[in-house]
Design goal:
This protein has 224 residues and is α+β, with helices and mostly antiparallel strands. The protein contains 8 helices and 4 strands; from the N terminus they run ααααααββααββ. Strands 1-2-3-4 form a 4-stranded antiparallel β-sheet, with helices on one face. A hairpin with a 4-residue loop joins strand 3 and strand 4. The longest helix has 24 residues. It is globular and about 35 Å long.
Amino acid sequence: MSRASLLCACLLATCLACTDAPRTPPVASPSRAGAGLPTTPATPVADRVDAGSSVDAGALASTEAGAAAATCSARKLSPVPKPTAKPLPPAVASMRERIIAAAVACDYAALAKLADEKGQGVRFSFGPDEDPAAYWRSVEEHETTPQPVMARLVQVLNLPFYEQDNLMLWPTAFREGATDADFRALKDLYPPGELKAMRKEKSYLGLRVGISLDGDWQLAVAGD
């Protein structure tokens, strides 16, 4: 074979080898993050929102647990009002029931909300105080002379009531011409010495509560 024929044959073989040889896929570089590892699908938006809701639910549960741990003088009293000798107007009965429930729960904020439910604040002090929740809490938690105002609020609303000037008022010892029986009903409300002095003067100076016929809580005050 001549030199020219041999050169042509070599060139032809080289071209055929380049055309028919299988192509090998490139190998991924191991230096790239995640190379050769299965990928985790991104968390759907809905799942991320649910996860956030779970955190919020946990925070809410923690808040409710803190509220449940609140304590005051009424904590061990029943949140269910005692039956009355005669029926109360529905709006009055509803407000009375909710006041008692909030006091037993030691929920000062709920009591303040009930006081403003009808747009008129309750009279709770003879001083310049403007926030009933803060006032009642300060009385309950006073460092030297704490007073069981929450317990008394519940106890007073479970005593006999009377009606005067479009108000249902508790207790009957506060009314004009109160009887010995009215004062005897207070035996668990104040120390015997205080009750004896009030009975002698025929003047009840303890806590009294007033609710209007349309359910407006207007009075929760003690003193002269």
